[in-house]
Write a structure and sequence with these properties.
Radius of gyration: 12 Å
CATH class: Alpha Beta
Strand order of the largest sheet: 2-1-5-3-4
Structural class: alpha+beta
CATH topology: Ubiquitin-like (UB roll)
CATH superfamily: Beta-grasp domain
Strand content: 15-25%
Number of strands: 5
Shape: globular
Mean pLDDT: 95
Largest sheet: 5 strands, mixed
Number of domains: 1
Distance between the termini: 39 Å
């Protein structure tokens, strides 16, 4: 199963785990299965329209899924998915 790196703001949903595994052949399937194991995490990642929130970045092995196939990006058991809230400041 792909490993998923969980950012600090979402760790309260994963029992404070910084890394978890979830089955799936695509990023979207992994997020769906992640939500089954840790209810509520999907609501923090997706907006009301079912799209990844604009301030959430998701990478597969360091590659931004916005420049791949989005949540349809294929993953394998050896892949690492990182979820990162975008940072802003001045």
């Amino acid at each position: 199963m792909p490993s998923v790196l969980i950012p600090t703001p979402l760790r309260k949903l994963t029992n404070e785990l910084s890394e978890v595994s979830a089955a799936g052949a695509s990023v979207g399937e992994v997020i769906e299965n992640l939500d089954k194991a840790f209810p509520g995490i999907k609501d923090r990642i997706y907006d009301e329209a079912g799209e990844v929130r604009r301030f959430i970045l998701i990478h597969v092995n360091g590659e931004d899924i916005r420049f791949l196939d989005g949540v349809k990006t294929a993953v394998t058991d050896r892949d690492e998915i990182s979820i990162t809230p975008a940072l802003a400041g001045g």
